[in-house]
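Fold it.
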Amino acid sequence: MENKITEEATLPFNLDAEEELKYSQSKIKVVIHANNEELALENVTLVLTTQKVLIFSENPQKVVLFFKYQNAITHGIDKQSLVCMISDLTEKFPGEEEENDEEESEPDFILAKIKNTNSFELDDWIQVVGDYQLHFDYSALGQEALQKVFQIFSECSALNPDEDVPEHEQNFLDSEFITADNIDDEGRVHFNNQEDGEEDGEEYEDEDEDENEDNNDQDKIQEEEEGPK
C-alpha cells in the first residue's frame, strides 16, 4: 500500500501495537443515519488504520467512535460525501443467548451514548454496530480529497475481508456503489469486478455462437440419417 497519511496526524490516543496509521483528515462533518434518526457531528477527524476506522472529536465534547472494516458492508461516493453502510454481521438463532449485543445494536442507545460521552479513555470508545449509514462530508475539501480517502478506505478494507461472506456476495457488495470511474464515454456502466476487455453483451454473443454451432450439428446428423437423395 503506497498511500501515506494526508496530513500530519497527532492522535489523542494510542493505536494497537500492530496497527498502522494510513490516513487522517480533520475538520470534516459526519452525519450518522439510524432508522428515522440522524446525528450530525461537526469538526471531527477521520482516521483510517490498517485495522479499523476511527472518528473523534475534541470540541465541544471528547468522543471516539470506531468500526471495523468487516462491518462496513459497502462504501462509495455520493455527490460530495464518502458513504459507508454499517452492519453488525451477526446472525441470531432462536434461543441463542445475547450478551448485550441487542442493546449495543439499538440505534437509540448508540446515538444517546455518543451525545453523552466526554472522554478519550479506551473504555469510553463507542463501537458503531447495527444498521447505520455514515456520510462524511468532503464538500469543503474537494473531489481530489474525496477520491483519495475513497481509495485508501478501499485498500484498507481489502486488507480486512470478512471471511464469513461468500466471494460472490462480496463481489456484489464491492460494486454496489457506482462512481464516475464505472461509466465510460458512451454511458455504459462497468463494475470493478468485471474482467478486463469484457464488454456488456459479450456473454450473450458467445451464447448465440454456441446455439448456431448446435443447430449446424443437428443439420449434419439429419443429413446423414436421410442419406443421399
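DSSP finds five helices and eight strands in the chain.
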